[in-house]
Design brief:
6 helices; Neuraminidase; 25 strands; four-stranded antiparallel sheet; five-stranded antiparallel sheet; 2 domains
Length: 375
């Protein structure tokens, strides 16, 4: 970390000068530096690790020293490991673009959204997110995008055109330290190791993924997850977990089956760092989290409430400390809040945020460059 914080220091002094001259210059310059740059190295690091992501993006434009620090691979990896999640919102149709907003609690008129770099055209479809990177699919082309740095990494085009039945996933192998894109077709599973340029056929899928939500895999704990059905028993729903490192599928149980599988709407996700399943049966919504990964007994019902409007419960983004549910209403593409203790919806209006929203995620963004893809 010492090498990182050298970014905050002055350029190297002229070695032809005497040590006393250099000490005098350094003492004089130290008094002219901003107070934050006069702090000790570990305090500067702690300050930057506690600043919200939106503010850090703006800090990168303040001076060369801060830009240097927020571009250093070691510092950005340390920063990512200690950064809380924030809300990344994608506009709808003509308002397309990525927007960052901090909605940690009760929102107020002072909250302002920050539009991030969106040099992607035409409007892509989300394939997955992992370690602050987004994977997009647009007109048969795949690419990885970092919305913080604005970097774009094109990926090899699949040999076969996509269909509505295809599922994708984007994840990271923590041992090999490589990113992989998974494409599940009806008769085979294709895997691309980012940087290899080759799509590999790893065999026939043992599960059916038709009519699932979302169609892209949810990355968590080194696995990509989908809700699917066993090919030999279409009535049996389960969580299909693809181990990114070994490229093998495993089965994880769903929450206790106290519901009608054919009439229940499922949504898989990650809430508060746990794998989660949101169930909606005729407007009765229950939110389950797996507190001990892979352990069936650890499924815990965190929330249970009535769906205030159609489809609201299947688009839940997060739960706030104030007892509110933040989600998307697909009918009018708006972000809305629902207080569990009361009835009624409140439309969330944030300055700079599009009125119509297509997607939103509660995730950790990263300053790590795509040129240095090890988190």
């Amino acid at each position: 970390m010492k090498r990182i914080l050298q970014c905050f220091r002055h350029p190297a002094t002229n070695r032809s000068r005497t040590p006393k001259q250099e000490d005098d210059d350094e003492e004089e310059e130290h008094g002219q530096r901003p107070y934050i740059l006069q702090l000790s190295d570990h305090i500067i690091l702690e300050i930057f690790c506690k600043i919200p992501t939106k503010t850090l993006i703006q800090c990168k434009r303040v001076c060369k020293s801060w830009r240097c620090c927020l571009s250093d691979p070691e510092f950005t990896r340390e920063l990512f490991s200690r950064t809380p999640a924030c809300l990344l919102v994608t506009g709808f149709r003509w308002q397309w673009g990525h927007f960052l907003v901090n909605l940690d609690g009760t929102w107020n008129p002072n909250v302002v959204a920050l539009k991030l770099s969106s040099e992607i055209s035409p409007r892509p479809t989300m394939v997955g997110s992992c370690n602050g990177f987004l994977c997009h699919y647009s007109r048969h082309h795949l690419h990885i995008f970092n919305p913080v740095t604005g970097e774009l990494l094109p990926l090899p085009t699949p040999s076969e055109l996509g269909t509505l039945g295809d599922c994708y996933g984007f994840g990271f192998g923590p041992v090999s330290r490589v990113y992989k894109v998974v494409r599940i077709l009806p008769k085979r599973v294709m895997v691309l190791t980012v940087g290899s340029g080759i799509w590999r056929n790893i065999g026939h899928p043992a599960y059916s993924f038709s009519s699932i939500t979302p169609c892209h895999g949810i990355y968590h704990n080194g696995f990509l997850h989908w809700i699917g059905r066993a090919c030999g028993d279409s009535s049996r729903h389960l969580v299909c977990a693809f181990h990114v490192e070994t490229e093998q599928f495993q089965e994880l149980p769903l929450p206790p089956p106290s519901y009608d599988l054919d009439k229940t709407y499922f949504k898989l996700g990650v809430l508060n760092g746990w794998l989660s399943v949101i169930l909606n049966l005729n407007g009765d919504i229950s939110v389950w989290v797996m507190k001990d990964y892979k352990m069936k007994e650890s499924w815990t019902k965190e929330h249970e409430f009535k769906d205030p409007v159609g489809s609201f419960g299947t688009s839940i983004l997060k739960f706030t400390k104030e007892g509110q549910v933040l989600g998307l209403n697909y009918d009018d593409h708006s972000m809305q809040a629902y207080t569990l203790a009361r009835t009624g919806l409140v439309r969330v209006e944030v300055d700079g945020l599009p009125l119509m929203i297509s997607e939103a995620w509660d995730l950790v963004l990263s300053f790590v460059s795509l040129k240095d893809r090890s988190p």
